[in-house]
Each structure stands twice: as C-alpha cells, then as structure tokens.
Amino acid sequence: MQDTNIETRLHPADAELSRRIVVLEEHLLEKEKTVEALQDSEKRYRRLFESAKDGILILDAETGRVVDVNPFLMQLLGYSYHAVIGKYIWEIGVFKDIAASKEAFKVLQDNEYIRYEDLPLEAFDKRPIAVEFVSNVCLVDHRKVIQCNIRDITARNRAEAEHKRLIAAVEQVEDAIVMTDAKGIIQFVNSAFERTTGYSREEAVGQNPRILKSGQQDELFYSNLWDTISGGRTWAGRMVSKRKDGTLYTEESMVSPVRDASGQIVNYVSVKRDITEKLRLAAQSQQARKMEAVGLLAGGVAHDYNNMLGVILGYTELAMKKVEAAQPLYADLRHIFNAAKRSADITRELLAFARKETIAPVALDLNRSVESIVEMLRRLIREDIDLEWLPTVGPCPIMMDPIQVEQILMNLCLNARDAIPGVGQITIETGSAIFDEAYCADHAGFVPGKYALLAVSDSGDGMDKDTLGHIFDPFFTTKELGQGTGLGLSMVYGIVSQNNGFINVYSEQGKGTTFNIYLPSCSDKGVQSRMEKTAEIPSSCGETVLVVEDELSLLMIAKMMLEKMGYRVLIAGTPSEAIGLAEKHATEIQLLITDVVMPGMNGRDLAERLHSLYPNLKTLFASGYTANVIGHRGVLDEGVSFIQKPFSMKDLAVKVREALRDK
Ligand code: ADP
Ligand code: MG
C-alpha cells in the first residue's frame, strides 16, 4: 500500500528513469549470470583436461610454443610443468620424433589432423614408451592452437606382443592343439593339427572333432571322455584317430575345460601328440630285446646238448668201426648216428640263432657267393618254381663266413618254396644301400653306413601281421608237424646280427614276401672264393697231440679218434694238468687241442701260456660256443684254427691237419 503511494507520488520522468534502472540492473544480473556460467563451464572443461587419462598438449599454432599441458602427460613423460610450458615443442627432447625441427613442426601446422598409430618415445628418465599421437588444429579465443592427444599404448603393445608370442608358440609346437566352444565345435586348430590330421584350418573350424573318429574306440570311451570334461575335469588318454586320407594314427591327448571369470565352461582345449612313430620304434626295440633274451636261453641249452651229442656221435662212430657193415647191429648204430647228427644240426641252428656259432669271416664278393650256389638252390626247390638271379653290376664286397651266406639263402629259398602252392617265382637280388643318421633314427637297431643288400622275394602266399611278428622266434612254425622246425629264420636272424647286419621283411597275405638282408660292406680288396672242402680223411705223420677238455667223455672220444688216425695223444682234464704235461713232454708236443670254456683258465689263456713256453706249438680250439672268449662276438681272428663241437672224425682229421700244416 505504501509503495503504491510512493509511485503515485513520483514525477512521470523519474518513473521512466527508475524503470530504465531496473532494466539495467536486470541486464547486469543477466550478464553476471552468463559470466558465471562461462566460468563454470570453463572450470568443468579444465577439470576434464586435468583429470583426463590421455595426455593433452596445447601448442600455439603460430609459434610452436607449449601453451598448456595436462598433468597426465607430465606424469607420463616425467617432465615438470615448468620444464614444458612456454618452450618450443622441438626443444623438448621427448617430441623429437614428432617435431624434430621447425620444418617438422610445419607438418603439424599445415595439417588439420594428424595421427601416428604407434610412436616410440622416450620419457625424461629414458624409459621407452609407445604412444598413439593425434593432433588437430583449432581456434580458441581467436587464437589458432594445435591440440595434441597422446595416449600411452605401452601396455597394449606389450599385451599384443605377448599374444603374438603365444600364437607363435601354439603354431610352432609339435603337439596338435584344438580349441572348441562349449558345445564341442572346433574354433581353432594349430599348424601341428593340420600336419598330423591332414585337415586344413578352414576345413576343421566349424566341425565337430568327430571327423577324426577312427571307429577303434567304442561309444562308452567317448561318453566317458565327454562326461569327464563337461564335469569340469581334465581327460587324459590314448586313442586311435583317423587322418583325412583315412590312415589311422595313435595319439596321446589331454582335453581340458576352459572357464571364464564367472566359472562357466566356455571352451575345451585339447593337446594331442601323435605317438604312432614312437610306438613303432618301441615295438622294434622290444622285438630286438626279446630275440636277445630267447637267444640267450636257446644258446645255453644248445651248448649243453651239443656236448652230449658229441659223446653220442663219437661213441657211435667208434662202435660202427668195430662192427662189420653187414651185421644188423651196424644198421642200428647207423640209425643212432643219423638221429644224433640230425639233433646236432638242430642245436647248430639254435647256436647260430644265439650268435654263438663260431665263424671265420673272409672278405668275399656276395655276387660270386650267390652265383656259386644258385644251381644248388635250383635243385632244392621244385621244378615248377622259377628261380631268377639278378646280381647288381659290380662287386658286392662283404666280410662273412661263406657257409653263412649259404645258410641264409638255403633257409630263405626253402621257406619261399614252401609258401608257393603251385607254379611261382623266387627272385634273388643283390644291391647296395647307404643308411644315414636320419634313417637309423627311425629304425631301431640300424647303424649308419654302407651295406650290401641280399634280397629274396617270392610270389607265394605271404603272411599276416600276426605271423610276421613271430617268424624269427625259435621253434615258431606254421607248418605241419614234421614239416618245419621253426628254426630256419631264427638262424638267419642270428647270422645276420652276428655280422652286424639288419633284416627288413615285407609281406602281405596273398601278395608274396620279400626278405631284405643288409650286410655291412667292406673294401673289395682281398676278396676270395670259398676254400674247397677236403674229401678224404687225412692221416697223421705220428705227431704228438695234447688234448685239453673238462668234459671227460668228450676227452675220451677225442683221444680215441686221434689215436685211430695215428697220432700220439696226451690228455688233460684241466688247464693246470695240461701245463704240467707240457712241461714234462715239452719238445714232443706239436699240437694243442683245447676246449675254450673251462673252469679255472679258459682255452685262449692256456694256449697263450703254452705258446710263450713253446713258440712252435700249434693250437686248435674246440667249442660249442665261444662265449666271446676266442674273438669278439665269436668272430675268429685270422689264422686261428677252430673246430665246432660236436665234430665227426673226419672233421677232426681235417682240422688237425690244417692246424699242423698252417702257420
Ligand atoms: P619253418 O620253415 O621251419 O616253419 P622258419 O623259421 O624258417 O621255420 O619260418 C617260420 C615261419 O615263417 C614259417 O613257418 C612260415 O609261417 C613263415 N614264413 C617264413 N618265410 C616265409 C615266406 N617266404 N612266405 C610265407 N611265410 C613265410
Ligand atoms: Mg624254414
């Protein structure tokens, strides 16, 4: 009410003035508010600038001086505010890559927008940092500035490098790696997977691992695997899988679930190793070990049998000489003799398998050796089987006992003959082969070097896998009772290993068989052909012979045989007895015949001992096997005489003459 009064009391001009004042006041108020608002907004932007987690640098676009810099950038680069503000950008070491000079700065000036994805910078303290750099030119308060946004990507780069390394590792490992989603659909496979399975990455991704299913495991196997991994546990085991080309392989695999942060299974990863080759090599060396063990056993038994058979043969032979050939007793003795001889042959084969047979290797040409017995082999096999002989050109020098070449060929040809039901073909070939380190790493028991190859192939029935796995076992035969002893290939195996060779057999049912035998090559100097056997029993010139043998019955037989031939015989049951006798009859004894394995002192040491006393004394060793005493693995030194037990009178006569004549 009062106000109204005043107003009404005012002069109209005054009223106009006061109205203007009010407007002015309102205007001022308005302006104040705008300024305030502006300040507010500036503060807000300032806060953004100051708290940004990217570095921001403001440059004067005209001069290149630093106008402003945010704390993050200072912290990142390790520079203080004052070290930067007002400086020319090219003065600040850290930016040398962006604006090394005024010239370089022009690039920033002239381009509204510049982006460097990955710039290697160095902080004040020389610490390397990688940044992403973006600059843009803009107008602020009528002033042209360049705003530079600098983002630290060191951590990102490190993570990327780690990722790359991880991928490289996954790609380069020998194990196949497969990653599936939670449903089991393949999402990733590495290169090893592609190599082992034959499926490319493109072919595998999106598929179920079932593509590798071989049918060798039953459903239970797979459901057990799935239950294990979907239950959150790792499955580990061996399985047979199928490659794209249909071939099977054995793998050792480990399948594990992969969980996300919340514990949910999101992937399965499996790491698989192809162990087919490893298993094959293990089987090979197991086979070799088995043969070694069986050989040891067979060798031991055969040795004892050999001595006994020697007694039987010897006495029978002597008894036959006391009986008229027309008498019935003579025929009986003949039967005993033949049976014992046959038994001796079997034990001999066993000894050959056990590599206990003593051999006298000579340098020979494999081609000539085969050549010399091809006709005999032709007679051995049936007429409706064609025997083809394909020698390689040039000589095939090996170090071997010629008898062993015969034994190998006879056994292989007889087996081939037995495997051919009607008309067929046997091929004998020679060749050469060089095995390098790589080949030998893949083939257990093979030793690098140069080899002569002796191959015997037939067009016969072939063998199944099961048979193939046993052919070298002694007494393994598929032939009817009385048809085969199962010792033929055992003997071949023994002979070949004794000569440091190898055998590879290829056979398929209905497709024939090939035996490839590799024998170490030697230089072709001094190759000689086999010595002819002496036909007649040579008689003595009355020499004195000292026989040393711990098996009394064998000693007696040897004595009787030698006396029958006309020698003077001294006998000793032990080496020490022999030394005593030798001292007494020093000058008379011309030949020492000694067993090799004896208790107390072995034959070789005895021979050396006596030889040092009487240098003209000749020595003939006799043994069922040598137990590595005479020479390495039963291989005789050149010039050493040896007779295999059991021996016939003729064998002994020949060997004694040879020993006395030689050397
Ligand atoms: P044997 O001939 O007395 O049976 P071997 O040791 O010589 O004994 O051979 C063992 C077995 O190996 C034979 O019984 C036969 O089953 C098999 N065998 C050997 N050679 C051949 C071949 N060339 N073809 C088919 N099978 C073979
Ligand atoms: Mg045979």
SSE-based structural type? alpha+beta
Which hetero compounds are present in the coordinates?
adenosine-5'-diphosphate, magnesium ion
CATH 2nd-level architecture of the largest domain: 2-Layer Sandwich
Major beta-sheet overview: 5 strands, antiparallel
Biggest sheet: strands side by side, in what order?
2-1-5-4-3
Question: What would CATH call the homologous superfamily of the largest domain?
Answer: Histidine kinase-like ATPase, C-terminal domain
CATH class annotation of the largest domain: Alpha Beta
Shape: elongated
Average pLDDT over all residues: 85
Kindly identify the CATH topology of the largest domain: Heat Shock Protein 90
Q: How many strand segments? A: 22
- Unreliable spans are 526-535
Strand content: 15-25%
Number of domains: 5
How far apart are the termini? 163 Å
Notes on the structure:
- The chain folds into 5 domains: 12-47; 52-157, 2-Layer Sandwich (Beta-Lactamase); 173-274, PAS domain (Beta-Lactamase, 2-Layer Sandwich); 362-520, Histidine kinase-like ATPase, C-terminal domain (Heat Shock Protein 90, 2-Layer Sandwich), CATH 3.30.565; 544-661, 3-Layer(aba) Sandwich (Rossmann fold).
- It contains 20 helices and 22 strands.
- The structure holds adenosine-5'-diphosphate and magnesium ion (MG).
- Adenosine-5'-diphosphate (ADP) is lined by residues 411, 415-416, 419, 458, 460-463, 467, 471, 476-479, 484-490, 513.
- Magnesium ion is lined by residues 411, 414-415, 484, 488.
